[in-house]
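Have a think about this chain, tokens included, and walk me through the fold.
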Amino acid sequence: MTQEEIIKKLEQIAKQKDVPFYSSSEVKYKIPNLARRYIAARYVIYDLRMVENGLYFIFYDSSTGGTYRSSAWGETFCGLFMAIDDFNSNVTIKKRQWIDRLSVRRRYLTGNRLLDQAITIHSDSKSINQNFLKEKKIEFLNKMMRKINPIKVETEVDSWNIVPELDHKTVISISVNRWLTSSNQIEWFVVNACKYLLEE
């Protein structure tokens, strides 16, 4: 499928599920002002306020390589994004790779040996006490990573975001480095990512 066909398919999924959306292919849905400086970007943004106010599922691609894979010339991802309050650390959580053994600086350990062997958590703060880092949630995230990979969780302080409501806020995201293009994949990802992000 071409990028245009993929975007149309994602728009159709949103319409079938009655989800409000923005899209780079439809003038009436284009995000004004902010996105103009990223004119080459392709995006579809599902507004999931019916699940949680301020929650968005973002498909974004500024690469020349296409929406199925990352490119050295741009960025490709899709995932859930939302602003979080009272948090001022940049954190990254991902499946542990062999190269992570060489980098122990700024690594946050859960205290669970099996989890620490499976997941790498990097933080620019030594003390993190946040709901999304609870052991039960990290175990759930590890199960998600076995199903679909590479999943990455990030918090970013004063982040850039194509969604104006998230721009220059502290944002938490759970994403993959490609576009999910089937309704079943998207639904599975949203349901499980919401469990990770929103459930206590």
